[in-house]
Design goal:
76% of the residues lie in helices and 0% in strands. It is mostly helical.
């Protein structure tokens, strides 16, 4: 049954209000922070006249609401400002860094889905046994321990001490140079496949597996715990017990009747955890020197680069809102009760 148009329009309007609200709040906060951005814009050896001109160009002498007006005007024209650190358009910087973050998050979510859901179902089928207890403890730890701490442990133990996997970056620069690898889409796994560059493909996988696994731990734990609890609840319902009494095979009960009642809320929870994972990717990128949005945001924060900071926050809010919109539409399509 298709989702009603009114429901879609309502969700789109909420998305617009959320993005505008985040933009205004972030802009005001960045202006409250004490800093001298004109020095970043004009340079460390700028004269007083150059500093004055920089303040005029950046509208720093105007009240905050006037600065916000100019920023909103440029923002909706597609001009997100110029980075005070790189001196390049913020939108260009963001689009350059975005594929690295998306590639990392997509691989992390694939790992979380392919491992977390089967792990939760297995735990539910072994309810009360040792395997169930071990999985419960591990998933509680995975959902509780800060991602940056796990990243540091993995990087130190596996990347530095053991030397099994690279401790940082996306690809070995020397290998990319000698094989003639050049990014096309910004997604290095896809680019290496397109170019048929097997050595770089293997090297990219070796570089991404550790940060992606670290990033997947939270959604993996969340999906495992939720799928376990839902599966236990479904398996204890009367109609499922009746199927067991009638001699229906357990695999048929599991995949035909029980799993469909589990997968929808698990998908919804994974979608809602996307925003958290995207923010967690920022810390992972800084630790593993991954040149994505997180690394860009970290360098921008250190240099008080207001336009870049606002651009990153708005882009993350936009992605978070879009993912929630998609999850809501899928949920409404699968379960008509949520439309009202």
């Amino acid at each position: 049954m298709p989702v009603p148009r009114e429901y879609v329009v309502k969700r789109l309007l909420l998305l617009v209000f959320v993005v505008i609200g985040v933009l205004v709040i972030t802009f005001v906060i960045t202006r409250i922070i004490p800093a001298r951005p004109e020095f970043l814009w004009a340079g460390p050896h700028a004269t007083e006249e150059q500093l004055k001109r920089a303040r005029q160009e950046l509208h720093l002498d105007e009240p905050v609401h006037v600065q916000l007006y100019y920023y909103l005007l440029d923002f909706f024209r597609g001009n997100w400002g110029v980075s005070w650190r790189t001196r390049l358009p913020v939108l260009n910087d963001l689009l350059t860094a975005l594929p690295a973050t998306l590639e990392l998050v997509i691989v992390a979510f694939l790992l979380a889905s392919l491992i977390g859901i089967p792990l939760g179902i297995y735990s539910a089928l072994r309810y009360g046994r040792i395997a169930d207890q071990i999985i419960r403890v591990l998933t509680i730890l995975g959902a509780s321990v800060p991602v940056f701490w796990i990243a540091l442990i993995f990087q130190t133990a596996i990347g530095i001490w053991a030397g099994v996997l690279p401790a940082g970056k996306r690809v070995d620069d020397y290998l990319a140079y000698i094989t003639g690898f050049k990014p096309i889409t910004g997604f290095y796994i896809l680019d290496s496949i397109i170019q048929g560059n097997l050595p770089v493909f293997i090297d990219v996988l070796r570089h991404i597996i550790m940060p992606a696994f670290v990033l997947s731990i939270y959604p993996l734990s969340l999906s495992s715990r939720m799928s376990r609890s839902l599966m236990i609840e479904v398996l204890n319902e009367n109609h499922v017990r009746s199927l067991e009494v009638w001699g229906v095979p357990q695999k048929t009960i599991l995949f035909k009747y029980a799993l469909r009642n589990v997968i929808v809320p698990v998908i919804a929870s994974l979608g809602l955890s996307f925003g958290y994972t995207l923010v967690g990717a920022f810390m992972v990128e800084l630790i593993f020197v991954w040149p994505g949005l997180g690394y860009y945001a970290g360098m921008s924060l250190l240099s008080y680069d207001y336009p870049a900071i606002i651009g990153v926050v708005i882009l993350v809010a936009l992605f978070y809102s879009l993912i929630n919109l998609v999850v809501d539409l899928i949920h409404a399509w699968l379960d008509p009760r949520v439309r009202f």
